Amino acid sequence: MSQQEQWKSKLGFILAAAGSAIGLGAIWKFPYVAGTSGGGAFFLVFLLFTLLLGYPLLVGEFVIGRRSQSDAITTYKKLAPNTLWHITGKIGVFSCFLVLSFYSVIGGWIILYLIKASTGSLNGLSQAEYGQLFGIIIADPVSTLLGQLVFLLITIIVVAKGIQQGIEKASKIMMPALFILFIILVIRSLSLNGAMEGVKFLLVPDFTEMTSESILFALGQAFFSLSLGVSVMVTYSSYLPKTQDLPKSALSIVIMNLLIALLAGLAIFPGVFSFGLEVDAGPVLIFSVLPAVFTQMPFGIVFFIAFLVLFLFAALTSAFSMIEIAVSALTKNTNENRKKYTWIIGGLIFIVGIPSCLSYGVMADFKIVDKTFFDLVDFAVSNVLMPLGALAISIFVTTKVSKTGLLEELQQGSKVGKVFFNIWFYLLKYVTPIAITVVFLDVLGALEWIVSFIK
């Protein structure tokens, strides 16, 4: 049988895991959610939730992944044999499969925009014209399907090469490049007239703009932006040696994720304020507002291409992990038949993603419970499967693995003491599940009913 794979270096693991976390959540979703939810106040609440709730769950996934040294499904079978907990791993694999089916659609949009920007097709348009162009692009069935296919082909080729030669090697190139490009964009954005208004919007909390809905958005974003609840981090940590410092690695990933969210805000909001555009544009902020910002700068199209490249890198590093969790489950963490399974899974994801890809074109009128296929899959994964998975993992770690076993695993490669352990365990066992339940009830519309009933 093939030998189990492992990360080649500590840095490689951290960059790959950070790449999984730093995807559309940090670069696409965070800016538009912050723009519609209070700016600086939202960022502060998001930061606190990430540290107090996201970090403990991330450490929890790392602990059970490395302890089992197995794929996402086998992990739960090993640590809780003869129980139904392995369903948690299956939900994670299924969730990642569904996520990538619509995630790859957005990846395709990025590629299409890169092509248009590189050929000069995005020069000199007004914001309204950029909005119209975005509508035309996503409604074209041929180009969007080709874009989705190209995005998936890149993902498949990298993952098929394995952990060290594929995911780790690509992450070591893409993640540093992403940070460098972001710093260049932030410097350029901050040099604009009126840029400080955008900085103030992002960094100076104004709690009069915060609502209970904004707080719940920040809570959901804290989990979504770290790829938690789908056992991706369980899978990645299963390739770790016992010498890796899990708490420190998790903290590095959380800090990198928060830093990217901050850089995304600093790259976007100063320009939006400088040119008097709408800060609360919503999901189309990246595709219709940003081009209008960049093309009004000297050499702006060059900076916009740089932004699209880093956006593509972030999307790809997340996509690697989504296919890897399924490949790992089939290969049992070895290289045996890896290429075959990667191509099969990638092909199936493309087929399942076709309705999502066509949701803004020929299938725009096909709706289920008033949602397009794209929106329905997004809602099902982001608002139902991921919270359920996160809740299950937090309960599993704190009830199915002994406290002695957890402490032992944490202290391998780390010098954490009992104080850290007790705080981490308390947050994961009590605080995190309550927070996840609140978000889940709000999503289902039950929270408002419960509050009104209590009143």
UniProtKB/TrEMBL annotation:
Membrane topology: Multi-pass membrane protein
Transmembrane parts of this sequence: 12-30, 42-64, 91-115, 135-161, 173-195, 215-239, 251-277, 297-320, 341-364, 376-398, 419-441
InterPro entries: Na/ntran_symport, SNS_sf, YocR/YhdH-like
Top-rank lineage group of the source organism: Bacteria
Pfam families linked to this entry: SNF
Keyword DNA damage: no
Keyword vocabulary terms for this entry: Membrane, Symport, Transmembrane, Transmembrane helix, Transport
Keyword Membrane: yes
Entry's localization field: Membrane
Family to which the UniProt record says this protein belongs: Belongs to the sodium:neurotransmitter symporter (SNF) (TC 2.A.22) family.
Name the UniProt record assigns to this protein: Transporter
